[in-house]
Amino acid sequence: MATGVTKVPIPRRGVDYRGKVVLAPMVRSGELPSRLLALKYGADLVWGPETVDRSMIGTTRRVNDSAGTIEWTRPPSHGQKEKPEDARESVIYKMHPAREGEKLIFQMGTCDPDRAVACARLVAADVRGIDVNAGCPKPFSTTGGMGAALLRTPDKLCAILEALVQNITPEFEIGISVKIRILETAAETEALVRRLCATGITGLTVHCRTTPMRPREKAIRDQLRMIADVCREAGVACLMNGDVETRDEGLRLAAEYGADGAMIAVAAEKNSSCFRSEEDGGLAPWRDVVADYVKISMEVENKFGNTKFVLANMVPGKQMVHGPITQCKSYTDVCERLELDHLLEKARAADMAVGLGEFATAAKKKDKKANVAALAAGGNMAQARKVKKDENKSAGKPSHPAETARPPEACQSAVAASSA
Ligand SMILES: Cc1cc2nc3c(=O)[nH]c(=O)nc-3n(C[C@H](O)[C@H](O)[C@H](O)COP(=O)(O)O)c2cc1C
User: How many angstroms is it from 164 CA to the middle of ligand 1?
Assistant: First the structure.
């Protein structure tokens, strides 16, 4: 190994990715309670789900005292001319300063340096790092020039990273990082990684799959040592990602390939205790992890549809309770189904906070039904379908094509097909 290598300095409020096993960014599966669960079981850092710069710009930062969270919200787009009086703001991003503030990395989807800076500025004081997603292969990301499209436009990707390094790091004293996939040949990947490392970033994560590869295809690790070497030479921390199942395996693989740490997605989606080392007890039974998850979700007043979606990945498909969970209408229902009697009181409080079950206002339910019926009666079937789709979404039913396409038993990798 080269001697006298200097590391890119980690800014005062930033975090060094070296020696860490971290939770991957995951749309829907990486919302606040999932991140807190991962931290509870020993994740060293957590990435938030990719949030597109345009959706953050224009949001208002609010403190939610009852849940102890900070939320970036915007007025809901109802698709109809007059929004209901009791319409709640849409929450675009949510974090818990006390429970994850020191460990949270904000990941953004972007294809423009100015917008990236504007977006980062909104959250930089509340998080410990900003990460740019340059790996998402799905058309909704790549057609806009974001995600994996950035791997083919390295000038643009470097300009984004440089703009963040120059504007965000000095002001907020946090580091900038990037998450990429491997390219077809080692030579192409090497050229890209060298350029990225010269932008001033403090960290780089490599998902060891090429852009066309599907999540079920085995990760390819034959470029990893080279990538880790290039990063080390430049003083940039390198995290490996792809088919890492546990903390112990992540640390072993990182050492084997010369990487600095590892990132876990799908294994953590299923059972977050994968972050616990064998020495500390290893994998916990799914029932214990589910109970922890439900409790945390209620504490942070998580969107109920998201809680059910995540539970569908955590409760093994063969369990009798798997199906009924998706039918639940409130946290109380969920606790009853899962026989979490000790959480029933908390469940009632959560239902009251988020307006579920007996606390769902009759007016709200009526409004929703009336909206769909009125739109359909007026011939606006497209709009009616959209409202219905939004309802399904908030009930945890899949709306993304990649999700609807999957067979029910493949819940585990729910959005994996759309993953970066
Ligand atoms: C449900 C889901 C959502 C994901 N969303 C994102 C995302 O927002 N940003 C990102 O960079 N990668 C995303 N990914 C990809 C993962 O971060 C990770 O790179 C990939 O799943 C490979 O890791 P694994 O083999 O440990 O699952 C997602 C993956 C899954 C399964």
Answer: 23
Going from the C-alpha of 130 to that of each of 51, 112, 160, 301, the distances in angstroms are 11, 15, 12, 25
CB within 8 Å of 8: residues ≥ 6 apart? 175, 200, 201, 202, 234, 235, 236
Outline which parts of the chain fall under CATH 3.20.20.70.
21-75+89-284
Phi, psi of 174 (to 5 degrees): -130, 160
Q: Which of 141, 403, 419 to mutate to test the pocket of ligand 1 (most atoms within 8 A of CB)?
A: 419
> What pLDDT digit, counting tens, does each position of 150-196 carry?
999 999 999 999 999 999 999 999 999 999 999 999 999 999 999 99
Question: Does the beta carbon of 243 lie inside 6 Å of ligand 1?
Answer: yes
Looking from the CA of residue 242, the nearest atom of ligand 1 is 25
Query: Is 133's pLDDT higher than 70?
Result: yes
pLDDT (tens digit per residue) in 285-323:
999 999 999 999 999 999 999 999 999 999 998 888 888
pLDDT tens digits along 405-416: 222 222 223 333
Query: What is the 29 CA–ligand 1 centroid distance (Å)?
Result: 9
Report the candidate in 207, 35, 37, 195 with the shortest Cα–Cα distance to residue 105: 35
pLDDT of residue 88: 76
- Which residues does the annotation mark as catalytic? 136
* Ligand 1 atom showing the smallest separation from residue 147 Cα: 11
Residue 2 pLDDT greater than 90, yes or no: no
pLDDT above 70 as % of the chain: 83
Distance 265 CA to ligand 1 centre (A): 6
- In short, whether 416's Cβ falls inside 6 Å of ligand 1 is yes
Question: Ligand 1 centre and the CA of 122: distance in Å?
Answer: 24
Probe residue for ligand 1, chosen from 22, 26, 110, 210 as the CB with the greatest number of ligand atoms within 8 Å:
26
Q: In CATH, which superfamily holds the domain spanning 21-75+89-284?
A: Aldolase class I (3.20.20.70)
Asked if residues 11 and 169 have their Cβ atoms less than 8 Å apart, the reply is yes
